[in-house]
Amino acid sequence: QVQLEDSGGGLVQAGGSLRLSCAASLRTFGSYFMGWFRQAPGKEREFVAGISRNGGSTYYPSSVKGRFTISRDNAKNTVHLQMNSLKLEDTAVYYCAASRRGGVPVGEPSYDYWGQGTQVTVSS
User: Fold this and answer.
1) pLDDT band per the 50, 70, 90 thresholds, residue 2
2) What is the pLDDT of residues 6-39, one digit of tens each?
3) Partner of 64 for a Cys bridge, out of 24, 68, 95, 121, CB 3.0 to 4.6 A?
4) C-alpha span between 62 and 8 (Å, rounded)
């Protein structure tokens, strides 16, 4: 049974940092494009970071570029999201996800497996 387990969320002051982790039970982890999404209350889930299968390319929307860094370790079946200079508007539940699609999948329907989510709350 495929599982993605998100962890690392918590409460942090604005300007602070958090590092999220995702452990995947995927047998061929290295064949999946990995992404992080977030969903704030009353808002749609949005793409915040993606990383190619070999980790050589990363993708971010303008809202987090320069502050968030995604990385992966294919030997350990893990993906991380380092979040720096956190803002109040970064408050959301964060989900990691795995996609078998080609290209750069940024939409929810492109992803095959999802973590359960981890809450990130940024306070003033």
Assistant:
1) confident
2) 999 999 999 999 999 999 999 999 999 999 999 9
3) 68
4) 23
- d(CA 102, CA 31) in angstroms, rounded, equals 10
pLDDT at residue 83 tops 90: yes
Q: In the prediction, which pLDDT does 1 show?
A: 81
Give the whole-angstrom CA distance, residue 42 versus residue 18. Answer: 23
d(Cα 47, Cα 33) in Å, to the nearest integer?
Answer: 13
In degrees to the nearest 10, what's the CA dihedral of 93, 80, 109, 114? -70
Beta strand ranges found along 1-124 (DSSP E): 4-7, 10-13, 18-24, 33-39, 46-51, 58-59, 68-73, 78-83, 92-99, 113-114, 118-123
